[in-house]
From TrEMBL:
Function summary: Centrosomal protein involved in regulation of centriole duplication. Required to limit centriole duplication to once per cell cycle by preventing centriole reduplication.
Subcellular location: Cytoplasm, Cytoskeleton, Microtubule organizing center, Centrosome, Centriole
Domain CEP76/DRC7 peptidase-like: 369-499
Stretches assigned to the Centrosomal protein of 76 kDa C-terminal domain: 527-664
Pfam entry (one): CEPT76_peptidase
Family the entry assigns: Belongs to the CEP76 family.
InterPro entries in the record: CEP76, CEP76-C2, CEP76_C, CEP76_N, CEPT76/DRC7_peptidase-like_dom, Papain-like_cys_pep_sf
Annotated protein name in UniProt: Centrosomal protein of 76 kDa
Any one cellular-component term (Gene Ontology): centriole
Keyword Calcium found: no
Keyword Cytoplasm: yes
Domain CEP76 N-terminal: 15-74
Domain CEP76 C2: 107-264
Length: 667
């Protein structure tokens, strides 16, 4: 086959790769490749430890016929996958399953150490005891396991929720990578014993409507494998629930760990257990000392004035597992690589992650406290306002800004967190992490005479108790904690009581003796914006037609008018991202041309952060403007709808929908 005869566009190549990946998993090619690699490395590497190239490995696999088997097994189905109704349809290789691809390409490098982690089914997920087996093709609730280890992220295939979920996935985690010196020196078991990063595993449940729930968040201690015979160990990992159920078992995962290539010398279990005990003691001692310091700091803070005990000064917060952590450990400078270009775009990304208050069991109106670890927040794709503020602050710190999380209240005394940046010129900007809005703070001077005009605050914040980031913490000790009169001169200790930077660093800096989980890198979106926009649009057309039919109205769609709505949706998103309104003259001109004299045009844009068409449609009908368009009666009524999905990192997206109609005006 000539090289030029078949050059694939990048998105087709990605589809092919994903298809092949699926096929490999189905045929247990991973198992067979592992056997061959073990054999090849034994044969080839034993004499003089030379480097094995990818070609050598492929050759070894070819000799044993594995590559040919895979090629024989790959079947392609072509179907007409319309990306856009107006464009000429072209066939594409299409696969039915829609889970995101494994997030890392695994290139085996025989001079590196890997941990091969297999998840071989689960048991005792008792909440799903009565769950009937899903029928073929039937949509059911699924479990997905997300992993993070030393800057690498992985995701399992979704499996149907069941009492014994059928997980069957293997992940190749590179153990020594970043800061451990020369890649050509193979690390031994003793060196690996000092790598105390756990494997963070987050279990997500996705229901039939696409809604996600956080089921469990577990830190797996993988180093027991260093003392296992043959460098292989099987463990049953009990997963505990989250929030108010953090002491309750939700199920057990069977996990097999294997060092790769095999260790020449394993450690004794006494050595590994001694190491774990030492680390635990060291961490516990640092946490104890910090607690002693925090209590002393709080006593001093209350001595300034007794009313301080009502201020929202938050030093510790509970994570999803009910563990109390210092608030400073939830924030860390986070770089988004090439996924986000500007701080404002980062604010937009954080605002389109779903907002959901932590669930409370029973009444009482209390707010369940649950500050999530970053992996749990981004894998679930939604969280509380604290999760949003922590992530936004981390991203702004990554962009080199002086950013803090603010803890205080909104109207009616509702506790709230938001983000603040301090400019080099003293400008204080508030960032609302749930909306992406920015507000400049100009303090009111209470000593001014009554006739002096004071700035009217536009922000929704009422009081502020403390501000913090990854290495600073300040308690507000001004006479009043009202935001509008607050002066943010953080260097003035008569206004802000600081905490010792050393004390914060002792418990909040990621590293050897700390219980703070490392931050995962952000991942690119796995959502195809064009395909998703199209799917939602088609579903909305059906829903509108059904709804009108129930009202005894016929529906005629105007494809041209629908297409003309695109520029408006693009302009709305651009405005949200940049705070600059784009010119919309062309859109208005096009609509005027498309709507003849004597006809009336009505349009209604609306914005969602989820991709469920039915839920969006129900919300649209609750708006009188939108309902008026969807249920429009009259002469020569033509309807239009346009959907535009804008994807952001992870599985975040902004969904803009515009409904419109034109009809002949009858006076």
């Amino acid at each position: 086959m000539a090289a030029g005869a078949m050059s694939l566009p990048p998105e087709r190549a990605a589809e092919l790769r994903e298809l092949i990946q699926r096929q490999l998993l189905k045929m247990d090619v991973h198992g067979r490749i592992r056997e061959v690699l073990a054999e090849t490395i034994r044969e080839e590497l034993a004499p003089e430890h030379q480097q094995l190239s990818t070609e050598d490995l492929i050759k070894a696999l070819r000799q044993r016929g594995i590559v040919d088997d895979v090629m024989k097994e790959l079947k392609f189905v072509t179907d007409v996958n319309e990306k856009e109704r107006t464009s000429a349809s072209k066939p594409s290789t299409h696969f039915v399953a829609r889970e995101p691809p494994v997030l890392k390409k695994t290139n085996i490098d025989p001079t590196r150490r890997y941990l091969y982690l297999q998840v071989l089914g689960g048991k005792a997920f008792l909440e799903h005891l009565q769950e009937p087996d899903p029928l073929p093709g039937q949509i059911c609730s699924t479990f997905t396991l997300c992993l993070h280890f030393r800057n690498q992220r992985f995701r399992s295939k979704p499996v149907p929720c069941a009492c014994e979920p059928d997980f069957n996935d293997g992940f190749l985690l590179e153990v020594h990578k970043d800061s451990l010196g020369d890649g050509s020196k193979m690390v031994d078991a003793t060196t690996m014993l000092s790598i105390c990063d756990p494997v963070h595993m987050v279990l997500i449940k996705t229901d039939t409507f696409g809604e996600t729930t956080l089921v469990a968040s577990h830190f797996l201690e993988w180093r027991s494998v260093l003392a296992a015979e043959n460098g292989v160990t099987n463990i049953a990992v009990e997963l505990l629930g989250v929030g108010s159920e953090s002491k309750v078992s939700v199920g057990v995962l069977n996990i097999r760990l294997e060092m790769y290539p095999q260790l020449s010398k394993t450690l004794s279990p006494e050595i590994t257990n001694t190491q774990f005990t030492l680390e635990r003691q060291r961490t516990a001692e640092k946490e104890r000392l910090f607690l002693v310091y925090a209590k002393q700091w709080w006593r001093e803070y209350l001595q300034i004035r007794p009313t301080h005990n009502t201020r929202l000064v938050k030093i510790f917060a509970q994570d999803e597992n009910g563990v109390n952590r210092p608030v400073c450990s939830y924030v860390r400078p986070l770089r988004a690589g090439r996924l986000l270009d500007t701080p404002r775009q980062a604010a937009r990304f954080v605002s389109v992650l779903g907002y959901e208050r932590a669930p409370v069991i029973g009444g009482g109106g209390g707010k369940q406290e649950q500050w999530c670890t970053l992996l749990a927040f981004i894998c679930r794709n939604k969280g509380d306002c604290e999760d949003h503020a922590n992530l936004l602050c981390s991203l702004l710190l990554g962009y080199g800004l002086e950013a803090f999380v603010c803890v205080g209240t909104k109207a009616k005394g509702v506790p709230h967190t938001w983000v603040m940046t301090c400019g080099t010129d003293g400008t204080i900007t508030f960032w609302e992490s749930l909306t992406g809005h920015r507000y400049i703070h100009r303090p009111i001077n209470p000593d001014d005479p009554p006739l002096v005009e004071q700035p009217k605050p536009l922000y929704p914040y009422r009081t502020i108790g403390c501000v913090f980031n990854h290495h600073k913490f300040f308690g507000n000790c001004q006479p009043t904690d009202a935001v509008e009169v607050c002066v943010f001169d953080l260097h003035d200790e008569s206004k802000w009581k600081p905490m010792s930077g050393e004390a914060i660093k002792s418990v909040c800096s990621p590293g050897a003796a700390s219980s703070v989980p490392p931050f995962p890198p952000l991942c690119a979106s796995a959502i195809d914006a064009a395909v998703t926009s199209n799917e939602i649009e088609l579903q909305l057309r059906l829903l509108v037609s059904e709804h009108r039919k129930d009202l005894g109205l016929s529906t005629v769609w105007d494809d041209h008018l629908s297409y003309l709505l695109s520029p408006a949706l693009a302009a709305y998103e651009l405005e949200r991202t940049t705070s600059i309104s784009a010119g919309n003259e062309e859109f208005q001109d096009a609509v005027r041309r498309a709507v003849p004299d004597g006809h009336t045009f009505k349009g209604f844009p609306i914005h969602f952060v989820y991709r469920n068409a039915r839920r969006a449609f129900a919300t649209c009908l609750r708006s009188p403007f939108c309902e008026e368009i969807i249920c429009c009666r009259g002469d020569q009524v033509r309807l239009a709808v346009r959907v535009r999905v804008f994807t952001y990192p992870e599985s975040a997206c902004a969904v803009w929908i515009m409904f419109a109609c034109k009809y002949r005006s009858v006076l």
